[in-house]
Amino acid sequence: MLKKTIAYLTSFYHSSNARILFSFFFIIAFLIRFPFFFRDYIDRDESTFILMGQSWVDGFLPYTELWDLKPPITFLFFAALIYTFGKSFLTIRIAGVLLVAITSLFTYKIGLSIANKKVAFWSGLLLVFLQSLFGSLQGVMSEHISMAFFIPALYLLIAKKRLISYLFAGILLGLSLMTKLNLAYPILFIFLFLFWNAVNNKEVLPHLVKILVLGGAILLVILATAAPYYLNNDFQLWWQSVFKAPMAYSGSKEHSIFNVLPFAIVIFGFFFWGTKKRLLDYKNPKILLLILTSLGILFSFMQAGKVNGHYLIQLYPTLVLLIAITAYELGFYKNLKYKSVVLFMLLLIPMESYLELKDVVQHKINKGSFYNGEGLTVPNYFREHKLSSDKVLFMEYHIGYWLLNEKPPTKAATHPSSILREELFLYMKNPRKTESEELQFILEDFRPNYIITRKNRRVFNKKKLAANFYINLQLLKNYTPLDTVDNAIIHQRLKFK
Bridge partners of 451? Predict the structure, then answer.
């Protein structure tokens, strides 16, 4: 049975073209991610992107009504989906499947241009799993969007030599940069490689023209995102939100290079070992470009002083390719024992999906709906009990704003944790200067009629002692628990307060 399965897969990827493989990757990604289609939200960032996209659909440019720490193409992606298909979790999650399939396909195509179909196929397939599982990767993250631009651009630079390819690669790199600003580092490393390659091949002039076209296309995309703000006499807001705020955030005291150093040492160690053992031929310009791109992304993590599960989506494509090439050089693909382990792991890895599917079916049986989560049940509670939602504050499950057709009370409250990111207030043009002023304004001036928190959990990070004490005091003095909906507590403001 095992031999037949391996033989079938081998025959499949040897005989399949790019269109068939894209369909294959899409189906696998769909099956893995499908059980998560029905959650209210998977990651707080995804909920924030949806709110920002809805604000754009409503006629407000990003950063003007609501605010978040991402470049505008992230919000444009969600705005386009909402504008076209309306308020649909299903559409957003299917779009996530499409992003995963695109990145996996072009990872395959890069592998094919550097190595062979074995390396290419297994790299693309493994990437489907790595982009879809563990932590919050089942949601549609900005990293998913950025890689769906970045990896096709990298493919064009590796596999194509025509000037038009550099133009399209530049546009794609520009879109990726305006989705995730940290990609400036790998893009810089790519430019340094292209200059070095031009000098090394003693073809400076032809290569210089391509480099200028590539850089010009990137700049064109950046300027295109700035144009609406310039026309509205709000260029400074764009500049500060897109460029200055991320630098202030990465330089905050909460983040340190030492948080990333152990992870970086492992990656550096792999590259050193691979080149030392001649498993990775750094003299091959294509492999060198993959290594440099990986190092650029890793350097961006170190500069930010932070790395988490969804950040790694950016590192996976190039790193998986390099690991797959190393495994091929070691003869991994020839050993039936190793192949059986890989197949077993591919069946075992989606355990999250199996468990989620069980929960979804159970929820359908018990509650009558596949859709689940407090981000849905709390808005339903408001509608069923005819509660006014025009002054509500979601400290958790803030996708509820979207479903209630409401907006957060302030820019800083777009993402609940940003209420305490006072280092960003200047760049979002917040009239309050400190986190205590912002929190006091929301609770004592805006005075929400309802506040939504999570049961048995602190409102803010446990390190934020003063903020947690203040909001708990306000809840104790001025609010009473109205009801508990699943794990959400609805606090109602006392009438005499």
Answer: 393, 491
| 3-state class (DSSP) for residue 67 | coil
Residues 347-370 have a mean pLDDT of: 87
Rg (CA), the chain: 24
Give the closest residue to 67 by CA, choosing from 383, 343, 412, 318.
Answer: 412
Burial of 201 (0-12, 13-18, 19+ CB in 10 A): exposed
For residue 260, what is the DSSP state? T
The three-state (H, E, C) secondary structure of 189-244, written as one string: HHHHHHHHHHHHCCCHHHHHHHHHHHHHHHHHHHHHHHHHHHHCCCHHHHHHHHHH
With CA atoms as reference, report the closest residue to 154 among 30, 315, 390, 39: 315
List the one residue out of 215, 225, 189, 185 whose CA is nearest residue 74: 225
First to last CA, the chain: 71
The closest of 148, 143, 27, 169 to 99, measured between CA atoms, is 148
Distance of CA 167 to the CA centre of its chain: 25
Residues 6+ apart with CB under 8 A from 252: 421, 423
Residue 214 near residue 173, CB atoms below 8 Å = yes
Record the tokens describing residue 405, joined without a space.
């057709």
Listed in sequence order, the residues at least 6 apart from 313 whose beta carbon sits closer than 8 Å to its beta carbon are: 130, 131, 137, 141, 143, 144, 147
State how far Cα 100 lies from the chain centre.
11
- On whether the CB atoms of residues 179 and 148 are closer than 8 A, the answer is no
What is the rounded distance in angstroms from the CA atom of residue 141 to the CA atom of residue 395? Answer: 21
Q: Within its chain, how far is the Cα of 261 from the centroid? A: 22
C-alpha span between 28 and 130 (Å, rounded): 12
Name the residue type at position 359: D
> Which residues are CB-neighbours of 135 under 8 A, at least 6 positions away?
308, 309, 310
Rounded Cα gap, residues 298 and 266, in angstroms: 11
Report whether 428 contacts 411 (CB < 8 A): yes
DSSP letter at 434 equals S
Give the 3-state secondary structure percentages of the chain, helix then strand then coil, rounded to 5: 70, 5, 25
Q: Is the whole model's pTM more than 0.90, yes or no?
A: yes
Q: Is the pLDDT of residue 431 over 60?
A: yes
Average pLDDT value for residue range 388-405: 95
Q: How far is residue 323 CA from its own chain's centroid?
A: 23
Are 314 and 298 a contacting pair, CB within 8 Å? Answer: no
Helix, strand or coil, per DSSP, at residue 387: coil
Residues 6+ apart with CB under 8 A from 477: 497
Spatial CA neighbour of 97 closest among 24, 19, 30: 30
Q: What is the pLDDT of residues 192-221, one digit of tens each?
A: 999 998 888 777 787 889 999 999 999 999
Please tell me whether residue 39 adopts helix, strand or coil conformation.
Answer: strand
Q: How confident is the model at residue 338 (pLDDT cuts 50, 70, 90)?
A: low
Residue 483: strand pairing partners: 490
